[in-house]
Each structure stands twice: as structure tokens, then as C-alpha cells.
Amino acid sequence: MRDPVTAYVALGANLGDALQTVLHALDALAMLPGTRVTGRSRLYRTAPYEAQGPDFINAVAQIETRLSAPALLDALQALEQLAGRQRPYVNAPRTLDLDLLIYGQASMSSPRLTLPHPRWHERAFVLRPLADLAPGWVTAEDWARVADQTIGVLPEPPP
After folding, report:
1. pLDDT for 140-156, tens place per residue?
2. DSSP-assigned beta bridge partners for residue 61
3. Are 9 and 63 in contact (CB under 8 A)?
4. Residues 48-61: pLDDT tens digits?
5. In what helix (H) or strand (E) does residue 131 lie, and over which residues does it extend?
6. Which residues contact 158 (CB under 8 A, 6 or more apart)?
7. Per residue in 16-54, is it b (16+ CB within 10 Å) or e — as a string?
8. Where in the sequence numbering do the catalytic residues fall?
């Protein structure tokens, strides 16, 4: 069996009950085979960035997983499908969006998966929650790049 790898997954939703969808997805991540959630950022509300529709609810989860990066991507996409994700056009509003941001020290680029995620450092809705868990990944240059993007912390929902 493979050793566990620390990975970071961005979560977002802006259709339906986006807050409950993101919270449910965080629980669902912990149910993936060979995977456990080891941390979760605060929850954030963000205006759509290069997207349309209502504001998004965003978070980042830190996980330890024994799944390979491609198998983890498959599992994330299956969770999106269970949440009713449709992809009618690029950056369409979504019931659930799960992006594999970082997978250990992996660096790869294929038509299906690029690691680290190629645009994570351009998006406040990724940087802010990622900084909650792994501030060393976010640089002053990253913060400057997203300074004009609106993002706000949500109060924690009751347990």
C-alpha cells in the first residue's frame, strides 16, 4: 500500500444551498478510500471570479490520502457528479467544484491533470483559505496579485 500523501483540495459552490453543499463535501472527502481530512480552512464568500452567477462559498481541505493523484481526481469528480455538477460551458455556475490544488511535492502536467493546480495563485478564493492551513505556500506576490478580488469570512455554522 502506498504511503499517505498530504494534498489540498479547494471546494466551492454557488448554486442551490452552497453552504450546505460545501460542508457536505468536506464530510464526503473524509469518506474517500484511504483518505482522512486533517484540516479545514474557514468558510469564505467570494464574488464570482472569471465566472457567473451568485457569490460562491469556498474553503480548502487538507487531506492525507493513499490514493494516487489521478485516482483522487476521479474521486473528486465523482463527488461533483453526485452533487449535480454540470459543465454546460467554461466557468458556468456550479453546484460543487472540487479542485486538486497540491498533491505532496508532485509536479506534473497532462491533458487531464496539472499539479500544482496551474491557477491557484491567481485566485483569492483559493489563496485565503489555503493560507489558513498552509501559510508558507502563499507569498507576498500572490497576495498582491489578488488584491482586487472580493472575499469575506463567513461565521462558522453550528455543529
Report:
1. 999 999 999 999 999 98
2. 9, 40
3. yes
4. 887 778 999 999 99
5. helix 124-133
6. none
7. eebeebbbbbbebbeebeebebeebbebbbbebbebeee
8. 85, 94, 97, 99
